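Worked Example 4.2. Consider the chain below.
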Amino acid sequence: MMNRLNLVTGRKCSSKRFVITYSVILAFLVFVYTTQINVIQEIEAVYYGKLIPSYASYLDNHNHRMHYGSNNGRTLSELMSDKDASPEFSHLANVTLNRRGLSNYYLHGSGKRDDYYKSNIAFIHLHKAGGSTTKMHLNKVCKRTGFASILMAHYGTTKVYDRFLKGDGVTSKQTVFVGGYTFGICDVLQGRPCSYMTVLRDPYDRIISAYFFCYAQNPPLCGPVRAKNVSITAWAIHQGSHFFNLLLTDKDTCRDREVHYDEYVKPYQERTKDIINYVPGLHPQSCWFRQKAILKERVTSEQRHAMLIYILDHLEYWLGVIGLVEDYQASLKMFREAYHLPFKTNSTVVVNKGRVRDKTEDARKKQMRMELLNSKEVREALYEDIMIYEKAKQIFKLQKEEFSRLKDQEANFSKPAD
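Applying the procedure from the previous section yields the following structure tokens:
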């Protein structure tokens, strides 16, 4: 009897232990699942345009500085005067602090309409962000208006700067500068107002588009890496915050290629070769890649952050009009209104997709997006461009509101009196 009791009791204990163990495992699985869902939701919040925590913190700090004049970190000017700062950083900081150009037409252009109408225009071409389509529109505008057009891409950039630096800095007629290295040309031009315009795109979408484009071809904008040899995450880290780099490009970045390679590019490649698969001899001296190497090798994280904060604070004072791929027709309308030029506004972005196309591409892009969003290293690499894009969306919204107000005002003015 006692043996039967012990046997039954043993079975009950085993059953209880099984239930407890099963409950613990189930609770653990629920915890892991919930944590993963929360992480995914947080990551998706970045992609779908919600304020990411770091950007919200920036806004809080920005508003605090605006109202109380305080800042938790040293300013760009303070860091530039630091005796330990590298000459490269001090030079870039000085250039950044002294940028010239017309402020945003819709936010700060009241009463200065004629300045925009008669200005030279510099289009900052961020590749895979509707740039080719926008250049097509600008070429048509130049043909209709008789404007001159000058390309600023890669090694020809230095010659363009030298042409105006050695002369009087005056264009013979209104001129449109196009290319990825136009930012800074307004610093050297004289005689006419000068205005920058650009079109931006969600950084994650842009990176994926650039990956597909560079998968089948290797222009300088792809750099010394073949997309087909690396993962999408390695590609994103390689490309980094490309627009941030373009806004810090100096006229001498494309000069002294051999010196730049030995001082900046080669050490940077050596330091990152375990992450990125570089191809020897493949565009090692692309201007944008040299600029990235300089920023990585000679600029500290504190200095880099100070430059980002300065850019965010001055974006609306540097760029005459900001366009977005995600609302391209509205962008064209605002370009036309600001510069009083015949942009055709019934156009959509024709994305230059390269040659890699198959039926599973959409599924691949979705998978790539999740890989990018799940990577801390990628978020760090794209951090500056994400912040700039979020700021640009705010400015774009204000532009649209002012554009609508101006159009309503025109409509009311043209109505016949009762």
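Residues 1-9, 29-59, 62-71, 351-356 have pLDDT under 50 and may be disordered. The longest strand covers residues 194-200. Compare this with Example 4.1 before moving on.
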